[in-house]
Here is the input.
Amino acid sequence: MDDVRIKPGIIRGLTILLFVFIVNYFLARAVFIYYAQYSLVDKYFSIFFFLSEIFVMFHAFGYFSNVYRRNRETPDKLYIKPLKEYPDAAILIPARHEPKEILENTLICCYNLNYPDKAIYLLDDSSDEKYKNEAEELCRKYECNLFRRKERHGAKAGIINDCIKGLRQKYIVIFDVDQNPLPDFLLKLIPIVEADPKLAFVQTPQFYSNLQNNAVSFASNMQQAVFYEYVCEGKGTKQAMICCGTNVVIRREALLDVGGLDESSVTEDFATSIKLHMKGWRSRYHGHVYTFGMGPEELGSYFKQQNRWAMGNVGVFRKIIGKFLRHPFALKPAQWFEYMITGSYYLIGWAYLFLLLCPITYIFFNIPSFFMDPVVYGFTFLPYLFLSLGIFYSSMASYHYGIRELFKGQLLSFITLPVYARASLCGLAGIKGRFQVTAKSGARRISYFKLWPQILIWAISLTAIAWGINRFIYERTPAIMLNVVWVAYHFMLLSGIFYFNEEQARGRYKKLLKKSLFEYKIIEDHASQEGAEPVVIFGVLLNQDITEGTLIMCKVVPPGNKDDIIFDARVLESSKLIMRKGYHTTIGVTKIPEIDKTKLERLLVR
Amino acid sequence: MINRKKLTDKIDTLIGLEKELVPLFSKHITSSLPFSSLSESDRYLIMEEFKKRVNIQKKHVDILTRIKKDLMKGKKDVY
Here is the structure.
């Protein structure tokens, strides 16, 4: 993304003010808890409640310190000389049971990279003959080296380590199988690593170009944006940028210096980064998108991905604490801070679940009873809340991300809290998870039985709202109303589970609708609405040009069925009017409204 | 020196690249346009440019296909 920053001075000033508000709230909360008269149960609640708040605000502080640094410091100037000689680079693409078309796209893009001395290696770990044959065919077609191993160990990290043993290239470039680099990826990045002999790797962002496919891919792209736009930029200024395992150029010498990628963790990239930094290697974040990839399109695969990241990161966090205690001066304080923040991030599942539980238990059992005086609460917590939201949204707006878009990312994070909680527990307990590949396609609704933790909390919240309103009518206590508001807010966020699970089912209609007849007529013309929701594709015959935002009346005629579905929808994209076989034709994209979803499913999914 | 089989295979690969690359990059880049600092008119120009490229790429595919046909018709095996 471009280096776009609006009013950095104002954002810096507001961030300092926010830090003051955080300290102010803590002091107020600590004083109220210390002087409150409470029972034993209340005492335990107070400890966990306070710890949860400290944890959340510690991470808020981490995030906003990166926002502050990003708005204070100009990224290191790059003194890059044009290359006289091009050092050789090995491009590694680890794959296991990947769909052929996804693999082919990546190989095409790597084949197309403008760089004189490159060698492409497909690291095929498939055990299924079908995938093995496809890998061989594609390697022949795109002149790739096919690497296989006899014994599987260490999943992705293991096969990369096995492969680099036999390589001689100066630089290793890693792409996940669904990542498509632009032609100048190597020409832009190799000079950066070449300019600094102590630079172990240069990391670039990921961008999910399937973000318009459905709500899950869209929201997960928004989460990535938050991570890459500010978190990574901040880490980059502190020499604490971590390797993300894909879209990265690594110096082979540095990787060998730490014994290759760490195979003991499912987040081998994160685990290896700290080893590199502790050995005095440097890292760099280059915040320009040179690679486009695919995000998870269904909740199931999204949860799997998050589960792996959470389990891996928390597992590495245990090691970080050990390293910190044994070698406290091996890294600078800012680097330790960043590693602590990244490693502990997924424990946020427990912190939020506890914060979510408190207003519910108050409504049902009057526990915890140590809530602040509402006036003090209003003067200490609300400034922190509104200012943090304000800085977050305005700083992201400078990168052209809207509130509604970012909110979807936050919504998805919220419904993933039970996944974070479970996975982080496994990570803390040292349970080693299996490396699971994130599915790239085939959006499907998942059974609500599998989503029982979210549904259970959702149902309890609903009951708490009803009971809280009932209590408020009779007791007229402001504290009850305050807690009802909090539960209602959590309830609204948890309802996101239905939004994401139902929305993704619509992705299927895209393919199915292509098989159906389709007609429409224009009934109103409108300007395009920003943030319009995606997306169903259709092809139609028409004698008029249409543009984005045009309201159209659509009729779906499923094959062999007389029960048509008629609905209106706005055009999201359209071709120009063209002549096809003597007919005026327009190809367009629109979205089917929620109300027709069940009807369509019944008619088309048979 | 390259024999006919290898040459036609190379042409097939090129045809594949021509067919796949432009639509692929078009899809990727247009998906990121809403988050760029480009104005509506600039975005429109980029989309138009991709449309032009699709046409050029179709011409390339036609030319490559013709070359391949000519090669298959000829009797020479080494080029």
Q: What stands out?
A: Chain A has three domains: 8-73+347-498, 89-298+308-320, 515-604.
